[in-house]
UniProtKB/TrEMBL annotation, chain A:
The chain crosses the membrane at residues 26-45, 57-78, 98-119. It comes from Blastococcus saxobsidens. Coiled coil: none annotated. It comes from the Bacteria. Pfam families: NrfD_2. This is Polysulfide reductase NrfD. Gene3D superfamilies: Formate dehydrogenase/DMSO reductase domain (1.20.1630.10). The lineage of its organism: Bacteria, Bacillati, Actinomycetota, Actinomycetes, Geodermatophilales. Residues 296-311 have a biased composition (Low complexity). Keywords: Membrane, Transmembrane, Transmembrane helix.
UniProtKB/TrEMBL annotation, chain B:
This is Formate dehydrogenase beta subunit. [4Fe-4S] cluster 2 binds at C60, C227, C230, C242. The lineage of its organism: Bacteria, Bacillati, Actinomycetota, Actinomycetes, Geodermatophilales. Binds 4 [4Fe-4S] clusters per subunit. The chain crosses the membrane at residues 320-341. [4Fe-4S] cluster 4 binds at C180, C200, C203, C206. Residues 41-71, 159-190, 191-220 form the 4Fe-4S ferredoxin-type domain. It comes from Blastococcus saxobsidens. [4Fe-4S] cluster 1 binds at C50, C53, C56, C246. PANTHER family: FORMATE DEHYDROGENASE, NITRATE-INDUCIBLE, IRON-SULFUR SUBUNIT (PTHR43545). [4Fe-4S] cluster 3 binds at C168, C171, C176, C210. Residues 139-154 have a biased composition (Polar residues). Its main location: other.
Amino acid sequence: MVDEVEFTSYYGRPIIKPPVWKTPDVPLYLFLGGAAGSSAVLGALAEGTRRPALARVAHLTAGGGALASVAFLIHDLGRPSRFLNMLRVLKTTSPLSVGSWILAPFSALTTATAGAHLLGRFPLLRRFTGAGAAVLGGPMTTYTAALLADTAVPSWHEAHRELPVVFAGSAMAAGGGITTALTPLDEAGPARRVAAMGAAIELAAMHRVEHGHGLVSEPYRTGRAGKLLKTARACTATGAGLTLLAGRSRTAAAVSGALLAVGSVLTRFGVFDAGMASAKDPRYTVEPQRARARASEAAASRAAAGSRRGS
Amino acid sequence: MTAISSASAAFRGQDRGNRLFGPVPDVTGDRGYADDHPARVGFFTDTSVCIGCKACEVACKEWNLLPMDDAEGTVDALGLTGASYDNTGMLGANSWRHVAFVEQSRAVDLPMPTVGPPGAADGQRPLEDPPVVHPQVPASATTAEQSAPSQTASGDREIRWLMSSDVCKHCTHAACLDVCPTGSLFRTEFGTVVVQEDICNGCGYCVPACPYGVIDQRQDDGRVFKCTLCYDRLTDGLQPACASACPTESIQFGDLDALQARADQRLAALQEKGVEGARLYGRDETDGVGGAGAFFLLLDEPEVYGLPPDPVVTTRDLPAMWRSVGAGAAMVLGLIASAFVGRRR
């Protein structure tokens, strides 16, 4: 047993640079993009299964969410006037580049679909753009998880396998919840089921993020992020429970949908905050790396000893 | 064809395919430059001879016209950290060289031959070159003495200063470059990594992607800035400003393979003198960033200097992330479709 070595840092300064992304811009961009993505899928399927009210609500949610998401993304740039430089190249090594190429056509298609609903015209065009948006809706819900995970931020990076699942569930809960709240009861069945499934996935995957990664899971349970995520859990769980009543009462549907949307918003803020906290404290950068370095040194010396014995 | 770093990667048949991780013998050619591209250049920063004069910081600021800032990167602010002689604080958008000052107080033995347990090991540590120190500070505060912390019979405490001029590592696998969505960051013909300021839209993605915390956004400008390894000077056949200004040759500029050979010699020489804390940082091309273009000789653990002990380029795990993103997206589509199956309500 080796003694616990005292943690050292350079005057307690962070080693990596915490993200310069602003709050609430970026957490809201994550939430709105997710809600829009799942709503676009809901809208296209509602259109195809002749649920006009659900289709209208879902497509308006998708269009509004996508536009607001783009607005928050542009507002967060250091040089907003150069937003179009995002579409200068397509790089698969950059989730933000891939994401821009998902977000740009998605927001165009959802805006066109929502516009057609509002104008009450162009039904054929509406079906076409709605279907296109639905195809991009899936990736819309998850690419933002790669955006966070593909950084040196310890609590985001280590959770890189679970975060896309969290964001997928959170997006379904939000999109399903909002459409549940705004759609007449007789057409909202699929939205309720999507909301309930999404909430269950969000809670389960988030539990793994909060507990599965040792030291770097800690920021998800402590401080402001811990409080946000605890509240998010309560909202999402209550909202999911209320979906059982949401088929009978419009009030229950509204409350359930609102709680699920709030839960999703708080999850995004909580995940964002936990990452910021893990970036600002050098402990979360140094200790896992130190442990990894020790382990590989030990393995190397064992291998060296083994080869000496063997020769 | 130019040999860039050691050929070990090619020997293992890994010269192909290491697009995200692992050694890349010719990173410049790998990124599409013709075979007659210049050799990969870099810095070898030998911190054992750094005197903390900050000439590198000043030369860099002057040559690159970097604005004044305080230790938190606030432009046009003059501030003292109050922690040490280091008032630069960190690398950032406005400080492309940063001299770290580390003051260590630890128990060491006085350098008298009679003190300490007798033995052959003791005799192998000659203090050939006793440093000139203040009379009240015992002369044993040298790196050589640090190699024998067990001989602290007398319990004297001494101060040692570690000074190190930090800089962008110009990684073989540069996360900042990988994640840049605009193509603003690019690999130059010298194998270095540079931001094109007329392209950068200030998305800030490179900032948390860097495992060393080098690149940063300049407040009230919005774009990101970092060391260019004096790209402008290199194209005119000059060496970078910091290396030109360094009075002790702590900062050495040159072709990377030559610097690596020199660093190996220097490390061997120090180890021969009994400086056990000495190690090279960023030299190993099998490390998490495929080896650094700017590497260091340190006298203590990297984290003491504010460097990550085992940095890994974040895009190493990007294939796993994309798989999870794809699976999540498919799950969303499948589950929402399933919600429409069967029941009418």
